[in-house]
From TrEMBL:
Keywords: Hydrolase
Residue span(s) of domain Glycosyl hydrolase family 13 catalytic: 14-429
Presence of keyword Cell membrane: no
Pfam entry (one): Alpha-amylase
Taxonomic superkingdom: Bacteria
Protein known as: Oligo-1,6-glucosidase
SUPFAM superfamilies tied to this protein: (Trans)glycosidases, Glycosyl hydrolase domain
Keyword Cell inner membrane attached: no
The organism's taxonomic lineage, starting at the top: Bacteria, Pseudomonadati, Pseudomonadota, Betaproteobacteria, Burkholderiales
Length: 571
């Protein structure tokens, strides 16, 4: 609802429940664990929680494979635990956004059990079925996100079903109005319970393309002799906007919600289209362009092949999205989530300058226009974990990649593991580091995935006590956003597009100008105060280094120290 745009002023905190806080010693985070840690969120000052899936699930993809959309997985707790958690959040003025995973369900969902039993079962058409090609091969040449073909044979009906992710995640058939009605019912179920919105998993994939004869088209061949990238075929299907508009009319327009659609391969055209307040359907998207800059092939088949980040690319991408959606839609701002490596390890320096660079990245991100997302542990400057062996990894994407690379293609285990250490999703999924004690205070039992040994230094208890911690820096940054409307409404301008180490941009609202200075390097960088801005009138709102050099001299203003960031307000 465009009239209630509180979501533009909000900061969202993502909780990955499996790794947040365990309370019963089974090594798995749970809902009572979240309830027990709400003070942490309140201290930080966040407005909204995005909770990764907590629904009933065989956990093939850690809950992104749902077998019952209306129940809580027993390892996370009960519906009563959920209600208590929601009440606890609301009592603190924190809203809750659920993860809506409706591009696919689990193959253990009752709909799919029915659907696969016979071609004339009433649920058959809830999923996407095709006959083999005349030569008996699968219907298309598409590769699934977690390796192998997107097509899996179903003996009882003599057909293939489509799964863009694992074979335990069959894609739902949005062409079927009965399926769409079921999804809207599920959404109303949670909204009527009082939840405040949804993060929608790969929502731009729900409309599949078709040929005139109803078959699905093959993907263009970019890798001779292999399966082909399939995301480009499904991430902007012909009926996408129509389906989402229908969802808006049927459900979202009747509640006061926050919505963000996860949208791999989203272009600014799609961003404008889907987030336009009048003609679109969602408040904002998670676009992926900035997540793809440090790999050779981007989202399409290349995430594991590393390429060093060129800061000019990062600025160009962010600037394009900032400018494209200004006044026409809305941006999400994120560097981190449960699918990405830790930002301080990826874009900063997780050794000597860990604290400095984590704070710099926070200023870089929160200074821009959009709704910022903080992923659990980011506010502590948590780092990647250098997994010693594949046995330490749990993620289906990682395990499948390793199996295919090492066992099927005979690639070097050491090199494969190096790629996993850099990009694997488990980096973000190690337990939240609460204390310096055993298992970082996450569990009294054996955690489902190893705790990072650096929890003895990096943990919430330490961060609360240290006024210069990454945590308090995030807290101040969030407070500033609340105080100054220029953070929300200011118009963005990039000042140094060609600089290889510095990002300098402004945000302007009336006569207020926010000036953001970020040094993305371990070397001091000279910079000139922008001629158009009155230095005398500028107030330093927040920096990540003190005002003094180790010698006790005041730090020179025209030099940004290693990983330094400053946020000025002039008026
Ligand atoms: O992710 C979809 C997605 O396109 C990626 O970020 C994906 O995880 C990719 O493989 C990363 O390398 C969403 C969820 O966030 C992810 O956790 C799920 O595994 C996926 O959908 C399927 O539900
Ligand atoms: Ca537990």
């Amino acid at each position: 609802n465009p009239r209630h745009d509180w979501w533009k002023q909000s900061v969202v905190y993502q909780i990955y429940p499996r790794s947040f806080q365990d309370t019963n010693g089974d090594g798995i985070g749970d809902l009572p664990g979240i309830t027990s840690r709400l003070d942490h969120l309140q201290q930080l000052g966040v407005d909204v929680v995005w909770l990764s899936p907590i629904y009933a699930s065989p956990q093939d993809d850690n809950g992104y494979d749902i077998s019952d959309y209306r129940n809580v997985a027993p390892e996370f707790g009960t519906m009563a635990d959920f209600d208590a958690m929601l009440a606890g959040m609301h009592a603190r003025g924190i809203k809750l956004m659920m993860d809506l995973v409706v591009n696919h369900s689990s193959d253990e969902h009752e709909w799919f059990r029915q659907a696969r039993s016979s071609r004339d079962n009433p649920y058959h058409d809830h999923y996407i079925w095709r006959d083999p090609k005349p030569d008996g091969s699968p219907p298309t040449n598409w590769e699934a996100a977690f390796n192998g073909s997107v097509w899996e044979w179903n003996e009882p009906t003599g057909e293939y079903y489509l799964h863009m992710f694992s074979r335990k995640q069959p894609d739902l058939n949005w062409e079927n109005p009965a399926l769409r009605a079921e999804v809207y019912d599920v959404m109303r179920f949670w909204l009527d319970k009082g939840v405040d919105g949804f993060r929608m998993d790969v929502i731009n994939m729900i409309s599949k393309p078709w040929n005139a004869d109803g078959s699905l088209p093959d993907a263009p061949v970019v890798r001779e002799g292999f399966l082909q990238p399939s995301f480009p075929m499904t991430c902007n299907g012909p009926r996408l906007l129509e389906f989402l508009r229908e969802m808006r009319e049927q459900v979202l327009d009747h509640y006061d919600t926050i919505t963000v659609g996860e949208a791999p391969l989203a272009t600014i055209t799609q961003g404008r289209e889907l987030t336009n307040p009048e003609t679109g359907a969602l408040n904002m998207l998670f676009q992926f362009e900035h997540m793809d800059l440090d790999s050779v092939g981007g989202t399409v088949g290349g995430k594991w092949a590393f390429k060093p980040l060129d800061l000019r690319d990062l600025k160009a991408t962010m600037t394009r999205w900032q400018e494209a959606l200004a006044g026409q839609g809305w941006n999400s701002l994120y560097l981190s989530n449960h699918d990405q490596p830790r930002p301080v390890s990826r874009f900063g320096d997780d050794g000597r300058y860990r604290v400095e660079s984590a704070k710099m990245l926070a200023i870089f991100l929160h200074g821009m226009q959009g709704t910022p997302y903080v992923y659990q542990g980011e506010e502590l400057g948590m780092t990647n974990l250098p997994f010693a062996s594949i046995d330490d990894c749990r993620d289906i994407e990682t395990l499948n990649f390793y199996r295919e690379a090492v066992i099927q293609r005979g690639e070097s285990p050491a090199q494969t593991l190096a790629a996993i250490r850099r990009k694997g999703r488990d980096n973000a999924r190690t337990p939240m580091q609460w204390t310096a004690g055993p298992q970082a205070g996450f569990t009294g039992g054996t955690p489902w995935i190893g705790v990072n040994p650096n929890s003895v230094e990096i943990n919430a208890e330490q961060a609360y006590a240290d006024p210069d911690s990454v945590f308090h820096h995030y807290r101040r940054l969030i407070e500033l956003r609340r105080r100054y409307p220029v953070f929300v409404h200011g118009r963005y301008a990039q000042l140094l597009p060609e600089h290889r180490q510095l990002d300098v941009y402004t945000r302007t609202l009336g006569d207020q100008v926010l000036l953001v200075l970020c040094n993305f390097s371990a070397e001091a960088q000279a910079f000139n105060w922008p001629a158009a801005l009155a230095r005398d009138a500028a107030e330093l709102l927040l920096g990540n280094l003190g005002g003094l050099l180790p010698s006790g001299e005041p730090a020179p203003e025209s030099l940004l120290r290693p990983w330094e960031a400053r946020l000025y307000l002039t008026r």
